[in-house]
Amino acid sequence: MRGLRATRGSIATRSAPQCARTTAAARILPPRAVHSRRISSTVSRSNKQPAADDPNFVSIVDLQPQTVRAGKRHGPGILLLALIPITAFFLGTWQVQRLDWKTRLIAKFEDRLIREPLPLPPHIDPSVVGEFDYRRVLATGRFRHDQEMLVGPRMRDGQDGFMVITPLERKDGSTILVNRGWISKKHRSQRTRPDSLVQGTVTVEGLLREPWKKNMFTPENRPDKGEFYFPDVHQMAALTGSQPVWIEVTMEPEYMRMVDYEARGIPFGRPAEVNLRNNHAQYIFTW
């Protein structure tokens, strides 16, 4: 019996380490068990309390706004933007004043046009011509075709041509400059237009005008070559021994008459109307 108990005790003793190894081996989990544990840990973390429900959580919307400035506090761009409406206001106001001035000026000239033609006095003070600008006048005398001057080129109805400037020698001995009108370029030579060389005493009706002003794009006249690009009244008067008085012949714009005059090379005068541009209302809306 004692031998049997001893044998059983030895068997128990041997089996104890074997059970311990079995228990340790059971603690070593397979890969699926490890993966399941990671998933369970992730799920447990996701079940944590959200930040929005945290009583200490502060949203960015609840923060005080802050202005972020880059560079200088007030750059030149801000000043330029501020000057734009101020400049536009002053320019618009200036154009309103210009519109009123131009409207009054045109009305004054149109009032002069409806008056009866005034006989031109023998001697005229050039300094007061501006007070009679666009005034209809009559002048009698004889054309000096030998001193004729052509100003151009001048376009009319798409054709190139010239303005015919002829001194008018009056009976009292004074001479004035007369802009007789437009002729085609093909009639530049007097030999091609004998009907335009009126002889004897003539009476012309036209507008007394102020001397023209040359713009910066117009070339200088070359009288030595007979080339005139703009009517320099004082220069032409000095060349012909005339008074610096400028008259523009007026005619009714009759189509058949214009066709006949153009074919024969006879200068055709301008209509009796005010041809001043008045675009200031458009400029007001622009500014």
UniProtKB/TrEMBL annotation:
It holds the Pfam family SURF1. It is found in: Membrane; Mitochondrion inner membrane. CDD domains: SURF1. The chain crosses the membrane at residues 78-96. One of its GO terms (biological process) is mitochondrial respiratory chain complex IV assembly. The keyword Plastid does not apply. InterPro entries: Surf1/Shy1, Surf1/Surf4. Keywords: Membrane, Mitochondrion, Mitochondrion inner membrane, Transmembrane, Transmembrane helix. It is a multi-pass membrane protein. One of its GO terms (cellular component) is mitochondrial inner membrane. Probably involved in the biogenesis of the COX complex. Belongs to the SURF1 family. This is SURF1-like protein. It comes from Trichoderma harzianum.
